[in-house]
Design goal:
256 residues; Rossmann fold; globular
C-alpha cells in the first residue's frame, strides 16, 4: 500500500494539513462494538485487495461511515464492499455478497467480470490498464475532477452486477461513473452524505506530490471539514453539560 499511503499524503499537501494514517485490522471489527474505535477517525478508507479475509469487518466499518456521516473512500474492493453493505443494510438483501466470497449467495451484487466467466483464477484473469469513464453531473467525482470524462488505471476481476442496479438506486445509491459504452460501473456515491464514494479503479497510481489525485484531494478535504465540525460541536456539548436543567437545579436545592 505504499502508493496508497503516498496518495493520502499528497491529498494532505493539497489541503495544507498533515495526514495521520492508522491501519486497522478489519478481521477484528465486530458490529456494533467497532463504533467505539471508529469514532476517533475523521475519514475511513477501504483499499483494494483480494480474498475474503477481513471482509465482514470492512463492511462494518463502511456501515459506520455511512450511518455516522464520516467521509468514506472505497477503492476497488472498497467499492465492492460498499455496494454489499448498502444492499444488506439499506435494501434489505441480508445475504448480499460477492461471488469472490460466496459463489452460492442468493444476491450476488458483485460478480466475476462477464468476459471471465468460465475462466479459472490462473494468469490473465484481470481487467488491467487504463480505461475511460464518464462522470455524472452533480456528483462528488465530477466536482473533484472538474471534468466530464476521465481515464483511470484498473486491476480487478470482479464487477458491479447491473441486475441489482434498480433496487440499489431506488434506495438512494447513485452510479456516477460508467464506461462510455455503459458496460461497467466505475463509481458509486451516496447523495446527501458529506462525502461517500467508491471507485473500481486505482486512483493512487496517478497521484504525485505536486499533482495530488483529485479524489484524494477531495477525500482529505472532506475529512478536514468533518474534523472541524466535530471540534466546533465539542464546546457546545461542554456548555450544555455545564448548564444544569431546571430539574437538576431542583435536585441540587433538595440535596442542600
Amino acid at each position: 500500500y505504499k502508493s496508497l499511503k503516498e496518495a493520502l499524503l499528497h491529498g494532505g499537501l493539497a489541503n495544507d494539513v498533515k495526514v495521520n494514517i492508522s491501519w486497522i485490522e478489519a478481521q477484528g471489527l465486530e458490529w456494533p462494538a467497532c463504533s467505539g474505535e471508529l469514532r476517533a477517525y475523521d475519514g475511513i478508507l477501504v483499499p483494494g485487495g483480494f480474498g475474503k479475509r477481513g471482509v465482514e469487518g470492512m463492511i462494518h466499518a463502511i456501515r459506520f461511515a455511512r450511518e455516522h456521516r464520516v467521509p468514506y473512500f472505497g477503492i476497488c474492493l472498497g467499492m465492492q464492499t460498499m455496494v454489499i453493505e448498502y444492499a444488506r443494510n439499506v435494501c434489505g438483501l441480508e445475504k448480499a455478497n460477492s461471488t469472490e466470497f460466496d459463489n452460492a449467495a442468493p444476491d450476488r451484487v458483485i460478480y466475476k467480470l462477464r468476459e471471465l466467466k468460465g475462466v479459472d483464477e490462473l494468469g490473465g484473469t484481470m481487467r488491467l490498464g487504463a480505461y475511460p469513464c464518464r462522470l455524472a453531473e452533480g456528483s462528488f467525482a465530477r466536482q473533484a475532477y472538474d471534468s466530464a470524462e476521465i481515464s483511470e488505471r484498473h486491476r480487478h476481476r470482479y464487477e458491479f452486477n447491473r441486475e441489482y442496479e434498480q433496487i440499489l438506486t431506488e434506495h438512494g445509491l447513485r452510479l456516477t461513473g460508467q464506461t462510455p459504452d455503459g458496460m461497467y460501473v466505475e463509481i458509486c456515491e451516496l447523495p446527501g452524505h458529506p462525502w461517500y464514494l467508491g471507485c473500481q479503479f486505482h486512483p493512487e497510481f496517478k497521484s504525485k506530490p505536486l499533482e495530488p489525485h483529485p479524489l484524494f484531494r477531495a477525500f482529505i478535504g472532506a475529512a478536514v471539514a468533518h474534523r472541524s465540525e466535530r471540534a466546533a460541536a465539542v464546546p457546545k456539548t461542554l456548555e450544555a453539560a455545564s448548564t444544569p436543567s431546571l430539574s437538576e437545579e431542583q435536585q441540587y436545592l433538595h440535596a442542600g
